[in-house]
């Protein structure tokens, strides 16, 4: 499995274009979802991520990392899709960050599951479904 170190070393922009150090999320079970506005499967999985976060509120955090250049357009998109989890804009760091997380072709969507110890316990390239999230939750909450 890839290391979570590149993720926690990154500082990305929030939807107000302010820098946020992702190390702030260290020590929490995470579902980290890389997406882009032009990606159909990315749009399709957002409702599942919203439901999953609500079901595990306070236990597992969902982070959305947009492979986007501008916070404004990502912010409009997040609002339109009612993304109520923390969303970041990767700008030029997005593709290298996905590649560092073992997504060599930088395909989207791409989801990484990280336990509270910072271990990547699972990753999935392609559309994430409820079953994938439920199975990962069992592992995330066990550690």
Automatic annotation (TrEMBL):
CDD domains: TlpA_like_family
Keyword Disulfide bond: yes
Protein name (record): TlpA family protein disulfide reductase
Keywords carried by this UniProt record: Cytochrome c-type biogenesis, Disulfide bond, Redox-active center
Any one GO MF annotation of this record: disulfide oxidoreductase activity
Domain Thioredoxin: 1-142
GO biological process: cytochrome complex assembly
GO cellular component term, pick one: cell envelope
Subcellular compartments: Cell envelope
Organism: Candidatus Dechloromonas phosphorivorans
PROSITE patterns associated with the record: THIOREDOXIN_1 (PS00194), THIOREDOXIN_2 (PS51352)
InterPro entries: Redoxin (IPR013740), Thioredoxin-like_sf (IPR036249), Thioredoxin_CS (IPR017937), Thioredoxin_domain (IPR013766), Thioredoxin_ResA/DsbE_sf (IPR050553)
Statement: the UniProt record of this protein carries the keyword Lipoprotein: no
């Amino acid at each position: 499995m890839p290391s979570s170190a590149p993720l926690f070393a990154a500082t990305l922009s929030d939807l107000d274009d302010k820098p946020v150090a992702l190390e702030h999320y260290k020590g929490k079970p995470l579902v980290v979802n890389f997406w882009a506005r032009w990606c159909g499967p990315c749009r399709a999985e957002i409702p599942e991520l919203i439901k999953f976060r609500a079901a595990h509120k306070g236990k597992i955090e969902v982070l959305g990392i947009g492979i986007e250049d501008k916070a404004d357009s990502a912010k409009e998109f997040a609002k339109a899709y009612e993304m109520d989890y923390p969303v970041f804009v990767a700008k030029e760091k997005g593709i290298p960050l996905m590649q560092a997380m073992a997504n060599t072709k930088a395909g989207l969507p791409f989801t990484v599951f990280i336990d509270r110890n910072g271990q990547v316990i699972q990753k999935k390239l392609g559309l994430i479904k409820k079953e994938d999230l439920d199975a990962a939750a069992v592992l995330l909450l066990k550690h």
